Every structure is written in structure tokens, then in C-alpha cells.
């Protein structure tokens, strides 16, 4: 392969998947969130572009740059575009590219398909949250939604939670569940984990010690009373929980408070604007009514030992992983090194 400075390495989704097999994704996420927790990353606001396509559908494009220090010392950006109507056309809801920059010249050195890394790092953040916030044994996992993110979570969590025996899954489209069941059957059989279709989100959630919503909804529906004592809700798709869950949870954790509060479209950003919540280190001014609920910590602060996590086995834990560009950049850096080692990809002339 020609890897001179005059070329850019391109990695397709298939090649990214092959390279990912060489990467301990949860260890990478732990490393980057630790660096984030001690201030060795740079994470600007994401650029959010939304418009209507020729069919009048709401579509969007996000550009999310980031720098990761420590031993990685690398910067890059993730571009992710989405249309919630894409699955009706047989297309993924979201797709994108991740770019890495040369440390010295800052020219682009690698361009790779972004969706594989995005889904894997999302599942890996959930797995890390379980590692650092787990209380009682997790025998049942509830997954709401049966798409790509659901599959990524199931594949990773089944391997990492040895006591897991049951997955309760719910989706508005039952055929999606059947397709996912069929695809995962050999894998789940190997780990002796049963997947059961639930008749409602409530039914799935009430049975579970770990709940992972992977939907596209913008309307909350998860009620606090559905949650077992000691359970963990990792609100991956961000809007599934009702405000009461955030307000009543014993522990509320985000990945980056600044990004969370800056987004007016998502649950926590809306709650912040309504004066219902404040950040881990915000000063609470005098209130005549009920004081706002304080978000307890950023996940990286818990990983770095700067903030405490679960206080008791009975704590209900709410985790809001906004999704950070530094995670994609760190994952992409490891994928890039694996691809070079495995001789993967195509070199493109500048």
C-alpha cells in the first residue's frame, strides 16, 4: 500500500468492521472518557443543519469535530446525516463519514465510513456505564427498538454480562423484531440467552434491570414507576424517558453537560431551559418554588474518580449519553492503526 503524505486512506464499512474486530471498543471509550474527565480533550459545539428535502421530509446533517489528547493526540471530525424515513426505502436512518487529521500538517489522512463506528461506540458507552454504575446482577435486558443500534447493543452486552439470561424487546414494527431474532439466533444460542417479544414497552421495561431505548421517537413515554429498584436506564435515543424519570432517579449522569444543555431539541436541554435541572457544578440561585434537580456527574468524571457513582444497590440510575465526537475520533484512530496493520482500504490521491 502507498501511504505517502500525498494520499488519503479510505475505509469502507466492510473494512471498518474488519478493523473493529482488532479493537477493544469499551477500553477505548473508557480511555477517552477518562481523558475527557481530566480535561485532556477539546469538544466544540456540534454544527447542526436541518432542512426539508424534495419530498418535504425533515432531514439533518451534523458535523462534530473533536480532539483527544493523552497517548492518542489526534483530531478529527464526524459527519452524520439522517432521515427518519430512510428505512421505508430500505436505507439506514443515518449514515456518515469520519475523518482523521495528521498531527503535524493537520491534513486529512484517513476517511472512513462512520455508521459502524457510531453504533459500536454508542453500545460501548452503554457497556462502560454498566461497568462503572452496575449494582445488582443484570439477568434481563430490555431493548426498545429493533434496528441497528439494538443489534449493536445486544451483541456487545451479551458478551460482557455473564449473568444475562433474557432480552425483552419491543418495537412498533413486529417484523423488525422477527428479522433481528432470526439474525441473532445462533449468537444468542451460543450464550444461552433468550430473546422474548414484549407486547409493550412497559412490559419489557418492568422485567429488566438494564433498559436501553434505541428508537427515533421525540416523545417521551417511559414512566418512573416502570423501573425496578437498582435498575439502570441508558437513554441512548435521548427522548424516550419522561421528565419524571430524570427528576426522581437517584443518580443522573450525562457524558458532557455543556453539549447536553446546549441542545434545545432533546429532553435534558428542554428541561434545562424550563429551569427543571442544572449541571453538576452549576450554582443554584434562590428559588421561591422547588429547587431544580442537579445532574450528578459526567460519566468521565466517574471514570476518572472525580465524582462518585452509585451510592446503593437500590439506586435507580439514569444515564444520558449524548454521543461525543471525541469517542468517534478515538475509535477511528484505533481503527486506522488496525487497518494499516491489516493492509485494509484504498489509497486515494489528493
UniProtKB/TrEMBL annotation:
It comes from the Bacteria. PANTHER family: KETIMINE REDUCTASE MU-CRYSTALLIN. This is Ornithine cyclodeaminase. It comes from Ktedonobacter robiniae.
Amino acid at each position: 500500500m502507498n501511504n505517502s503524505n500525498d494520499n488519503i486512506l479510505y475505509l469502507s464499512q466492510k473494512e471498518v468492521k474488519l478493523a473493529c474486530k482488532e479493537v477493544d471498543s469499551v477500553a477505548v471509550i473508557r480511555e477517552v472518557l477518562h481523558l475527557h474527565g481530566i480535561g485532556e480533550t477539546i469538544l466544540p459545539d456540534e454544527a447542526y443543519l436541518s432542512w426539508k428535502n424534495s419530498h418535504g421530509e425533515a432531514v439533518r446533517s451534523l458535523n462534530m469535530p473533536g480532539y483527544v489528547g493523552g497517548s492518542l493526540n489526534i483530531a478529527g471530525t464526524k459527519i452524520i446525516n439522517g432521515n427518519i424515513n430512510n428505512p421505508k426505502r430500505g436505507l439506514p436512518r443515518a449514515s456518515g463519514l469520519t475523518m482523521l487529521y495528521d498531527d503535524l500538517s493537520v491534513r486529512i489522512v484517513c476517511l472512513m465510513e462512520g455508521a459502524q463506528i457510531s453504533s459500536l461506540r454508542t453500545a460501548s458507552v452503554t457497556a462502560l456505564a454498566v461497568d462503572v454504575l452496575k449494582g445488582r446482577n443484570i439477568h434481563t435486558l430490555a431493548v426498545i427498538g429493533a434496528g441497528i443500534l439494538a443489534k449493536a447493543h445486544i451483541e456487545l452486552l451479551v458478551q460482557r454480562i455473564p449473568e444475562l439470561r433474557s432480552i425483552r424487546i419491543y418495537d412498533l414494527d413486529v417484523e423488525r423484531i422477527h428479522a433481528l431474532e432470526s439474525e441473532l439466533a445462533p449468537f444468542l444460542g451460543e450464550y444461552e440467552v433468550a430473546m422474548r417479544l414484549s407486547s409493550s414497552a412497559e412490559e419489557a421495561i418492568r422485567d429488566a434491570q438494564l433498559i436501553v431505548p434505541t428508537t427515533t421517537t421525540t416523545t417521551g413515554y417511559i414512566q418512573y414507576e416502570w423501573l425496578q429498584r437498582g435498575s439502570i436506564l441508558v437513554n441512548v435515543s435521548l427522548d424516550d424517558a419522561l421528565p419524571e424519570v430524570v427528576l426522581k432517579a437517584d443518580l443522573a449522569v450525562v457524558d458532557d453537560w455543556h453539549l447536553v444543555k446546549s441542545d434545545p431539541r432533546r429532553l435534558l436541554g428542554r428541561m434545562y431551559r424550563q429551569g427543571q435541572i442544572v449541571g453538576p457544578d452549576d450554582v443554584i440561585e434562590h428559588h421561591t418554588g422547588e429547587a431544580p434537580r442537579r445532574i450528578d456527574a459526567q460519566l468521565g468524571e466517574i471514570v476518572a474518580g472525580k465524582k462518585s457513582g452509585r451510592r446503593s444497590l437500590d439506586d435507580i440510575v439514569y444515564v444520558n449519553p449524548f454521543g461525543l465526537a471525541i469517542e468517534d475520533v478515538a475509535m477511528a484512530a484505533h481503527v486506522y492503526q488496525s487497518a494499516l496493520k491489516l493492509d485494509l482500504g484504498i489509497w486515494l490521491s489528493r
